[in-house]
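It would be a great kindness if you could assist me with a short task in structural biology. The matter concerns a single protein, recorded as an amino acid sequence and a row of backbone structure tokens. The record follows directly beneath this note:
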Amino acid sequence: MIRSIKSNPTIKLLGICFGHQIIAQALGGEVKKSSKGWGLGVSTTNVSTDSIPVWANLNKKEQLNLIVIHQDQVIEAPKHSHVILKNDFCPNYMLNITPNILTIQGHPEFNKAYLQSLMNIKQDIIPKTTLLEATKSLEKHTDEKIIAHWFSEFLSQK
């Protein structure tokens, strides 16, 4: 199914978190549990200016803050994909795979209160120091509106 979407430019596909991972793996990338532990809290990512698509070049920000909660991540991106967002913890944070597939590791659909609730539910399986750092990171602003705008622009491209 994903391969047929990849070859049909009229169909657009978005993948968020696990969707990001499964699409990347289905197209030849590699997904593994991160040796760095949990990605949790508000994560700062860098905009990759060398491969940013035209539809995403709508602001001059060099970094975006987004909510994350994951252990697995894309270790190796599929061939012909372009990294749009990256950081040291997650080097394949947001991928544009062909003109019609866009994936992201973070959760632009979450708000901080929802993440705090998830962290409370999972407090028995997440290391205490990771929870403390993630809770402190919730003080940062988040840029989910920029990602929502990028999604809208991506989906409206022909």
Summary: The radius of gyration is 15 Å. Strands lie at 13-16, 30-33, 39-47, 63-70, 72-76, 81-86, 94-97, 101-104. Residues 18-151 form a domain with the Rossmann fold fold (CATH 3.40.50.880).
